[in-house]
């Protein structure tokens, strides 16, 4: 039995003015491609909110406040680097009027496995043939709308 590394992570539900959510397509090579929200591991000494803001800047080029934290999930998976982890993922809702993003801040690994991105409307998420993470993304987005009301 292998021990899973603990992985605190900040994830961003980036929603544009039309209510679409930004997802990146990961093509790791060792498993089928999948789509995922922006975000990543929390660096040592960093809060979840600080990590969310940093990840948003690095992955999208957007300098925006990341808040509020709208969800927390505990999931097990194998990272792109092949490390089995137990992740404590915190989700932050971020709204933007911009639809263009800048991926210049991507790491070499991100450039290799995250070569495309797009804004998804809610109905496109449900009908998309490739896996989308988190698997309950539509429920998370619906909960943010309820919280906004």
Automatic annotation (TrEMBL):
Matching PROSITE patterns: NUDIX, NUDIX_BOX
Entry cofactors: Mg(2+)
Top-level taxon in the UniProt lineage: Bacteria
InterPro entries assigned to the protein according to its UniProt record, in alphabetical order: Nudix_hydrolase, NUDIX_hydrolase-like_dom_sf, NUDIX_hydrolase_CS, NUDIX_hydrolase_dom
Keyword field: Hydrolase, Magnesium
Pfam families: NUDIX
Domain Nudix hydrolase positions: 5-143
Family: Belongs to the Nudix hydrolase family.
Record-given protein name: NUDIX domain-containing protein
Origin species: Sphingomonas oligophenolica
Organism placement in taxonomy: Bacteria, Pseudomonadati, Pseudomonadota, Alphaproteobacteria, Sphingomonadales
């Amino acid at each position: 039995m292998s021990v899973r590394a603990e992985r605190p992570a900040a994830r961003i539900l980036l929603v544009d003015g039309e209510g679409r959510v930004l997802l990146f397509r990961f093509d790791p090579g060792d498993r089928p491609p999948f789509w995922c929200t922006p975000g990543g591991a929390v660096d040592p000494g960093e809060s979840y909110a600080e990590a969310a803001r940093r990840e948003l800047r690095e992955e999208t080029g957007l300098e925006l406040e990341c808040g509020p934290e709208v969800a927390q999930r505990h999931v097990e998976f194998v990272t792109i680097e092949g490390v089995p982890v137990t992740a404590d993922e915190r989700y932050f809702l971020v709204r933007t009027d911009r639809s263009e993003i800048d991926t210049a801040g991507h790491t070499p690994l991100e450039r290799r496995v995250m070569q495309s991105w797009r804004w998804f409307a809610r109905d496109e998420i449900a009908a998309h043939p490739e896996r989308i993470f988190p698997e309950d993304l539509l429920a998370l987005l619906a909960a943010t709308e309820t919280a906004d009301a």
